[in-house]
Amino acid sequence: MTITTPASPFGRTVCAMVTPFTPEGELDLDGAQALADRLVGEGRCDGLVLSGTTGESPTTSDAEKSALIRAVAEAVGDRARITAGVGTASTRHTAELARAAEAAGAHGVLVVTPYYSRPPQEDIAEHFLTVADASGLPVMLYDIPGRTGTRIEPATMLRLAEHPRIAGVKDCAYDLLGSAKVIAATGLAYYSGSEELNLPLRSVGAVGYISTVANVAGGALASVLDAYDRGDTAEAARLHARVLPLVELMMASGLPGTVTAKALLSALGLSAGPVRAPLRAAAPERTEALLQAYKAL
């Protein structure tokens, strides 16, 4: 039995791509193009998220964000969907970034919940609706209360799903019940934003994943969905378990995924470069542990 994957304007196997920098800390557009090409080819990613959390959006300028979109769009052409992270704590600034992403060639925008100010649900809804009206691009809501301090409650999701351009959700809420209820009640394309939940969320109707680990192990993650979608759930569970040691080291070891992804990419001789402060590079022993887990996978 083959399990049908719901259609989505953002892709299915999506990488939250790191933003390569030169050794001096400047934006490395050649490196970004090389990495994007590898992710779409060898990494089996049919979508890329640029300037998300993993892409160090808090420390890149608006001009750098637009330049990155243009460079990656040139590199991958029509082989992958490009979603630009545009979320900020300001509704006005987020709307400006959405329009800039559209002008630069993005296919969609990822909009995180406004952070720090912790607005109530009504204000969160108005923020997303304003941004959705600011451009013609499909919008993916980014629900990550552990970073923003505020959840997009399921009732708010149901309201937002009525907007014609609000099309998806990157789910980092760790609430399988709430997510399953919204998936069942709406046409929103749900994506796991936490690799350990890629298979559980797919089993209740999610489209796919948006993954930091896909920077280095996209094929291994894609194989899990492939097995599930062809109806081989036992093989999907085996492949899911096989990738968990690397997932744990990269995403649950006390270091941000940006740091671990760049450390491992650099150790493999691939385009990444340093992280920008306040982040700092992984210690050599952490990098070696990541490399050994990668080799084992």
TrEMBL record:
It catalyses: L-aspartate 4-semialdehyde + pyruvate = (2S,4S)-4-hydroxy-2,3,4,5-tetrahydrodipicolinate + H2O + H(+). Pyruvate binds at T54, I210. It is an enzyme of class 4 (lyase). SMART domains: DHDPS. Its EC number is 4.3.3.7. The active site is at Y142, K170. GO terms for molecular function: 4-hydroxy-tetrahydrodipicolinate synthase activity. Homotetramer; dimer of dimers. This is 4-hydroxy-tetrahydrodipicolinate synthase. It comes from Streptomyces klenkii. The lineage of its organism: Bacteria, Bacillati, Actinomycetota, Actinomycetes, Kitasatosporales.
